[in-house]
Amino acid sequence: MGILDGRKILVTGVTMNTSIAYAVARIAQEQGAEVVVSNFGRGMSLTRRVVRKLDPVPEVLELDVTNPEHLAALPGQLRELGFEHLDGLVHSIAYANPETALGGKFLTTQWEDVAQAVHTSAYSLQSLTMSVRDLLGPGSSVVGLTFDATVSWPTYDWMGVAKAALESTNRYLARYLGPDGIRANLVAAGPVDTIAKKAIPGAASFNDVWAERAPLGWDASDATPVAKSVVALLSDWFGATTGTMVHVDGGLHSTGA
């Protein structure tokens, strides 16, 4: 028996087999969950190709979390797939324009690009959760992914600000959904060599920082430790935990210079 036996989970942001979301979907299935995944636009073909490696092959929904029509249609699409309720929701979505909002351009970024980063990376946690609110109930778990925004990072710039907003959004979701038995938590991951990370100018240097400072060491090519933590938070093993951020970063967050 797995820790997610019989649970129905939506995993957003599955793109490549190197993505954290893909690893979450794989491990959730191994732990007994029925999984549906999502992506949108040009990423859909990549997602459909990569999930063929999963068994069973999950349904792929098109979902742009900045599109109100997509959010409005989501509950009906899930119900058509037999998801009359949703036990778990994984938010693995973030975007900031690498040409204008990342890579040391913090002081010159215009509001339109900041707004896009915050909308896609932070507000979407609330909007996505509320789009499926009627499918969530006691025991349901919302889990998002962050890169610890309690400090500044080189090149991360407005994505760091957006992640700080995501972390605050998570705390408020926990406050307002907790009375209905719905949990909301984040996993603060160390750097993983995903397509999203590679789009950040200079992000490869994070691997060097982790190699030098993470007490447990860190393998940026392996998303499994992060994904296992997400799956654990989706389960009832963390039934009394909400509004928190679990660090899965080899312990680097606990170290000084």
Mean pLDDT: 95
CATH superfamily: NAD(P)-binding Rossmann-like Domain
The ordered string of helix (H) and strand (E) elements is: EHEHEHEHEHEHHHE
Helix and strand content put the structural class at: alpha/beta
CATH top level is: Alpha Beta
Largest sheet: 7 strands, parallel
Q: Write down the CATH topology.
A: Rossmann fold
Strand order of the largest sheet: 3-2-1-4-5-6-7
Low-confidence stretches: none
**Treating each run of at least 4 consecutive H or I residues as one helix, how many helices?**
8
Hey, roughly how much beta strand do the residues contain? 5-15%
How many domains? 1
Shape-level CATH architecture: 3-Layer(aba) Sandwich
The tally of beta strands, per DSSP, is: 7
- Rg over CA atoms, rounded to whole Å, is 17 Å
Task: Please give the alpha-carbon distance between the first and last residues.
Answer: 43 Å
Shape field: globular
Topology:
Layout: E1 8-12, H1 20-30, E2 34-39, H2 43-50, E3 59-62, H3 68-80, E4 88-91, H4 111-131, E5 141-146, H5 157-177, E6 183-189, H6 195-198, H7 205-213, H8 224-234, E7 245-248
Parallel strand pairs: 1-2, 1-4, 2-3, 4-5, 5-6, 6-7
Helix pairs in contact: 1-8, 4-5
Structure description:
By secondary structure, the chain is an alpha/beta fold. The protein has one domain: Rossmann fold, CATH 3.40.50.720. 38% of the residues lie in helices and 14% in strands. It contains eight helices and seven strands; from the N terminus they run βαβαβαβαβαβαααβ. The protein has helices at 20-30, 43-50, 68-80, 111-131, 157-177, 195-198, 205-213, 224-234, and strands at residues 8-12, 34-39, 59-62, 88-91, 141-146, 183-189, 245-248. It has a seven-stranded parallel β-sheet, with helices on both faces. Helix 4 (111-131) links the parallel strand 4 (88-91) and strand 5. Helix 1 (20-30) packs across helix 8 and helix 4 (111-131) packs parallel to helix 5 (157-177). It is globular. The model has no long low-confidence stretch (mean pLDDT 95).
